[in-house]
Structure formats: C-alpha cells, structure tokens
Write a structure and sequence with these properties.
Layout: H1 14-22, E1 26-31, H2 41-49, E2 54-61, H3 67-82, E3 88-90, H4 94-102, E4 106-113, H5 124-130, E5 133-137, H6 159-171, E6 174-176, H7 182-191, E7 196-197, H8 215-223, E8 228-230, H9 244-258, E9 263-265, E10 269-270, H10 273-281, H11 301-310, H12 315-333
Parallel strand pairs: 1-2, 1-10, 2-4, 3-4, 4-5, 5-6, 6-7, 8-9
Helix pairs in contact: 1-11, 7-8, 9-11
Length: 342
C-alpha cells in the first residue's frame, strides 16, 4: 500500500484512524467565547470533525468575570445546545456520553473554574449541577473562600471548602484541583470521599511552572481514584512545543508515575484569541502579562492517537487515555437529576 493510501481520513495511519474512530475521545476542558451571544457551532464542529466524542466546556472562572455573568453564559450555552438535539447531547449521565457516540452526536458538558462562582452560597452548587456543570475547581490561581490558588500564598482548604466537598459528594459533582495550591490540593485529596481530578495539569518535573503540579500531587490525585488530564497550553509544556510528539512525552511521564488508568486529556484550547489576550492582559491566567501561547488544537487529536501508538502503548491503554478513564470516574461519581430533562 502506498503511503498516501495508508493515511485516509485525518492524515494519520490506517491503524491510528481505526483506533481513533472507534475509541471514546473526550477532551475534558476547552474554552469557547465567554459571551451569552456567541455563535459557537463552528467551534464545536471542529471537535466532531477531529473525531472527538465528548467535550467539557468552561463557562466561567474566578477573577475575570462575575458569577452572575457566568450564569448568563452557562444558560445561553445550555439553551443553544438543547435546541439542536440532532447534533448535540447535553450530558446528564455518563451513559449520555456513550449514547452520543453511538448516535454520531457530540456530547457536551460544562465546568466552572473556581469556587468564587458559589459567592459563599452552598445551594448554588445544586443549581450549577442541574444546569449541566459536572466539575468545579477549588480555586483558579488565587485564594478564595474554599481554598488556595497556585499563584497565591496557599492557606489550605477552608471550612467552607470542606462543606463544598461534602455537598458535591451528595450531588455527584466532581471536584478538580487544577490551578489550585499544593497545600489545598493535598487537603482536598485527604478530605474528599470521592475521586478528585486534575482536569488540565501537566507534570512540574517536565516544566517547573507554578501552574504545573508536583509528583506528590499527581500521586495523591491518583490515590483517590482520580485522573490527571494532560494540558495542551504551550506555556505549560516543555519548550512551549505543542506538537503531538511532545504532548505524549508529558503523558508518558504521568503514565509512568501514576499508572495508565489515571491519565486523560484536558487540552485547554481557547478558541477566541482576542478574548484570551484580554484575560492575559488583566493577569487573569498567570498573574502577569503574557503573549498568547501556542495551543494544541482539536484538529491535532488524531495525530495524538498516532503518537500514542508510536509510544508502543497497547490499545487498551490508549483508549483509557483518550477518554475511558474519564468515563470510569464519571460513572462512579455523577448522579442523575430531574431539572436537566428536556
């Protein structure tokens, strides 16, 4: 077979094409334009065309937007999706994700980066869950009422933070410790009765950056039954290299440290670069001004599958990394609700 014939659909080998198309592929963190009037069909279609089956969409984060502006974004996104049931499945349960793949639709769920979104009111946690939010960060870079951020003097998990963890366990809301300070992370892992995730965090051993996480944090996350999601944001990758080949080096480090059942993908691709420039300029991402970094794009997902095959991983391991590890955690934590019924 000629080389061009062996790379049929996504510019990757036939073996990678078959595996990528059959596997459950889940990017557990991406950022659409954070506006309640954003026409984001083209952005979501980029995931579908790249063979992605499920995507978790950020709807708000601490420090840049108020929680009530975030609610406007969340409800707009939700309404937009439920009006297009032929294309999208608004995720309520883990089974919705497998059903969406079987029907050729894209499964979409939401995340919130930081507990400032609760405004000190525990009952908002249920409201967000009912609207489709399936995980929340403890802190987004800076300290808040729940705990410490990775760019602040981390004072640890607060009494309110412990209340949030207890209520989240009752509801089925996953807790995430990306962007969170190390002391708070370790206290969350110890206190939580459910698996805790690091949705989009890279190994600090690969690049010493305050947004990346130590070996101790990664191992403690895995010990809860959680998953560490590899991030494709260039400034958190060694040499700023966002190629699939470099990304799998970070994945491989995590696999060797915590085992293949505890590694996934949370690529953190930001679609609106102008909006990102504004956030970077305000210091909302890293606490200081930075140029817009390179990012691993949705279109590169098939190449990532091929690069994982190139590492010599068995297909079962690759399927876990691409999405089944997230699915396992979701099945163990999420609970259904009535308000999401449409």
């Amino acid at each position: 077979m000629r080389d061009d014939e062996s790379r049929p659909a996504w510019g990757v080998t036939s073996k990678a094409t078959a595996l990528h198309g059959d596997a459950l592929v889940w990017d557990n963190h991406t950022c659409l334009p954070l506006r309640p009037d954003a026409a984001f069909l083209p952005q979501l279609e980029r995931f579908r065309e790249a063979g992605v089956d499920a995507v978790t969409v950020n709807v708000m984060f601490d420090g840049i937007m108020s929680w009530h502006d975030g609610v406007k974004v969340l409800t707009f996104f939700r309404d937009w999706l439920v009006q297009r049931p032929e294309l999208y499945v608004l995720v309520k349960t883990a089974e919705d994700i497998t059903d969406a793949k079987a029907s050729g639709r894209l499964a979409v769920l939401f995340d919130i980066e930081g507990m400032a979104a609760l405004d000190g009111q525990l009952s908002l946690l249920r409201t967000y869950y009912d609207l489709g939010v399936r995980w929340m960060l403890i802190a987004y870079n800076r300290n808040n009422r729940a705990g410490g951020g990775c760019l602040d003097a981390d004072t640890g998990l607060t009494p309110f933070g412990r209340e949030v963890l207890g209520r989240a366990a009752e509801l089925g809301m996953l807790i995430c410790c990306s962007h969170t300070g190390e002391r708070t992370c370790m206290e969350v892992f110890e206190y939580s009765s459910n698996p805790v995730i690091l949705s989009h965090s890279n190994p600090k051993a690969m690049l010493d950056h305050p947004r990346n996480v130590s070996d101790e944090v990664m191992k403690a996350c895995a010990a809860t039954g959680g998953v560490v999601g590899t991030c494709g944001f260039g400034m958190f990758l060694r040499n700023g290299d966002t190629s699939a080949e470099n990304l799998v080096r970070h994945i491989d480090y995590a696999v060797n440290l915590v085992g293949p059942d505890h590694v996934g993908l949370g690529l953190d691709f930001v679609f609106d670069e102008e909006e990102l420039k504004t956030f970077l300029g305000k210091g909302g991402i890293l606490g200081e001004e930075h140029p817009v970094p390179d990012m691993f794009a949705p279109e590169d997902m098939p190449a990532l599958t091929e690069a994982l095959l190139g590492m010599g991983y068995p297909e079962t391991t690759i399927r876990g990394i691409l999405g089944e590890n997230w699915l396992r955690v979701a099945r163990g934590v999420w609970k259904g609700n009535e308000l999401l019924g449409v």
